[in-house]
Design a protein that fits this description.
- The structure is a single chain.
- It contains ten helices and 13 strands.
- By secondary structure, the chain is an alpha+beta fold.
- The chain has three domains: 111 residues, 2-Layer Sandwich (Beta-Lactamase); 72 residues; 158 residues, Heat Shock Protein 90, CATH 3.30.565.
- The strands form three sheets. The protein has a six-stranded antiparallel sheet.
- The longest helix has 48 residues.
């Protein structure tokens, strides 16, 4: 491998975006992190001027040009820029100027603040989730002991009753005790570690699709699939992933089926894509699988969006608030990430799982 190829490989493994510009501010090189940040391939960007990649960034471009002219360096924090296709990004960037046999060159280093915010938010949520789970497990233990006593006493009482009709009351006590025990078990969540094996994510989604399709048959909700067939098998427990995605899709179905929701056709999209340069559970992965579950429902209320994955948090009066908490627990056990963005007419749950 030549020295140039080694240097390119090193730059492509950086999580910081790197742009090399000539004296006319035209792109000479862009590493993979910069490609992901600007959402453009390095080959397509080659030769483009910086003002073609950024829209309305006159002040920033003037500062970069001044640095190039005066051979100075500077760093700008929390710059808010718009890309050529309209997406806004928030970044820190550093400008360094140097000279070689081709004249002045400008090295632009870019760090996405969204990426940093996401890691901090994930760590914070994981910490709170872990603490909440331990509290719930402790509470569950204290609840299940007296429940067992109540159930046992009801069984003994039923055996001593002189009239069979009175057994209906003891049966109610037993059934309700069982229902509470099952609820507590669901609150505690999965205890079984995932049994990882090469898993085709589309087989998982097809299973979820067939289950939900049967439940909504004849209704005004349509399931759509938008798969990337190039995604290779990933290390996962297929049954647990089915449960996690099924919980999310059923939530979408319930939101679309609510009597208060007005739509001519409810739509849920199951979409898969490859994500590059993903940081999951503080670990960097060159490739990851991204599963998105998108619906055109009413959206999630703003007052619960930040606590959506906590136990007992639900936007529906009749909901238990356990489905999403269990889904998050499963994804965490797979060293993945689950996030949600929502506005009226567009709610998206995104699951990112590492590829081997």
């Amino acid at each position: 491998m030549t020295v140039d190829k080694i240097h390119k490989k090193l730059l492509d493994h950086l999580k910081t975006g790197v742009l090399l510009l000539d004296e006319a501010l035209c792109v000479r090189f862009m590493n993979l992190a910069a490609e992901q940040l600007f959402e453009i391939s390095g080959r397509k960007a080659l030769g483009s001027n910086l003002d073609q990649l950024l829209i309305g960034a006159d002040e920033d471009l003037a500062e970069v040009s001044a640095a190039l002219a005066n051979s100075t360096s500077f760093t700008k924090r929390e710059a808010r820029l718009m890309l050529s296709h309209g997406k806004r990004i928030e970044i820190d960037y550093t400008v360094n100027v140097f000279e070689d046999n081709q004249g002045k060159q400008l090295l632009l280093e870019l760090s996405s603040l969204e990426h940093a915010y996401r890691i901090n938010r994930e760590e914070s949520l994981n910490s709170v989730h872990s603490t909440t789970r331990e509290l719930v497990r402790g509470l569950a233990h204290e609840i299940k002991n007296p429940l067992g006593g109540i159930r046992g006493a009801a069984q003994l009482l039923a055996a001593e009753l002189p009239e069979r009709e009175l057994g209906d009351y003891t049966n109610i006590i037993i059934e309700e005790a069982d229902r509470l025990r099952n609820l507590v078990d669901r609150l505690v969540g999965l205890r079984k570690a995932p049994e990882l094996a090469p898993t085709n994510i589309h087989e998982v989604l097809e299973r979820v699709h067939s289950l939900v399709e049967a439940e909504i048959a004849g209704g005004s909700i349509r399931l759509e699939r938008d798969y990337d067939p190039s995604i290779p098998p990933l290390p996962a427990d297929a049954e647990q992933l089915i449960q996690a995605t099924l919980n999310i899709v059923r939530n979408a179905v319930q939101a679309l089926a609510s009597p208060s929701v007005e739509h001519t056709l409810g739509k849920i999209i199951l979409r898969t894509r490859i994500t590059r340069n993903a940081t999951l559970s503080t670990k960097f992965h060159r490739l990851a699988a991204n599963i998105r579950i998108i619906d055109n429902g009413p959206g999630i209320p703003k007052d619960i969006i930040d606590t959506l994955f906590y136990p007992m948090i639900s936007g529906r009066a009749e909901g238990t608030g356990l489905g999403l908490s269990i889904a998050r627990d499963i994804i965490n056990r797979h060293h993945g990430l689950i996030e949600c963005t929502s506005r009226p007419g567009a709610t998206c749950f995104s699951i990112v799982l590492p590829l081997a």
